[in-house]
Amino acid sequence: MNIGKTFKIFTLSLLVAVAVVPSASASPSQSATSVVEEATSAATNYLKSYISNDIDGMLQNSVEPIYPNDQERRAVYEERVKTDVPVIDFKIVESTQVSDSEIDISVEYTTVDTVLPPIPYDVKKIDGDWKVVLVPQEINVNRDSADYGKVQPVDVENVSYISKSGEVVPFVTTLDYYTFYNWAGNTLIGKDTFNTHNNWVSIKGTQYDYTSSGPGSNLSVKYEIITEIGGSIQWYGQKTVQGNYNTSWYYEVINLANSSITNAKLRISSTNARQADGAGNVYEN
Fold it and tell me: Buried-most residue among 16, 80, 129, 233 (CB within 10 A)?
């Protein structure tokens, strides 16, 4: 966001003899009110399209620079409407004019589970039309966290989506299965989703890096529970598992921000994996 950009309005007066006559055309091309109203209207159209799964409306009222064309965007949006957490309402809680062609807004989403902290967006006039600019970002929605509401960018260059595969081993209530092979630590997000009904889930599985072995292994893998809304990520909780588990299982509990989460996903990442294999399950109860 170009929050630092400012603009100045200069007025012109004409001095005739001893009389000062104000210029009749001293106002800027658009008033601040009309700029904010027009941009907010376009943003509202996008948000209404999003919660109603109107892909044409989303495409018309937004841009998403990480995708080269609308054809690719449409394919992505067709998947998003299946796996994003369902949103039932929204409120634009703040709008600030940056220039005649840009405003900043903050949007508060109400999902089927909770009310999320505000998510920021830029709205820009592009080729004469106002558009919501969608960029990858993550927001902490865990109210027990010191970083609640904090927004940070997401490095999509280092993210892959993985499908559920393999046999699920029954263990109370199984929510999800995950696996990775010859993994170098880039961020993995499950394409499949699951619903939680408690304020915690557990994970049980194996992880092993073939470039290091023994009890002193420094392999560190982070397992996180997230949801997604229109390309942005909402973070609910995490657990980092240290060490190699090849002949034994790790078992950990992830405390969650909500007692119920719809269309949750598992995100896996590591800062030091080089050639790692792993698999496991997310459980409840």
Answer: 233
pLDDT in tens, the chain (285 residues): 444 433 333 333 322 333 333 433 334 556 778 999 999 999 999 999 999 999 999 999 999 999 999 999 999 999 999 999 999 999 999 999 999 999 999 999 999 999 999 999 999 999 999 999 999 999 999 888 899 999 999 888 777 777 654 444 444 578 899 999 889 889 999 888 999 998 999 999 999 998 865 544 689 999 999 999 999 999 999 999 999 998 899 999 999 988 899 999 999 999 898 889 999 999 986
pTM, to two decimals: 0.77
Q: Using alpha carbons, list the distances in angstroms from residue 59 to 89, 112, 133, 156, 229.
A: 19, 24, 11, 20, 15
User: Please, which contacts does 242-249 make with residues 24 or more away whose CB atoms are closer than 8 Å?
Assistant: 242/218, 243/215, 243/217, 243/218, 243/219, 244/207, 244/208, 244/209, 244/212, 244/213, 244/214, 244/217, 244/219, 245/205, 245/206, 245/207, 245/208, 246/206, 246/208, 248/206, 249/204, 249/205, 249/206, 249/280
The 8-class DSSP code of residue 118 comes to P
Cα(64)–Cα(263) distance, integer angstroms = 23
Three-state DSSP class for residue 137 = strand
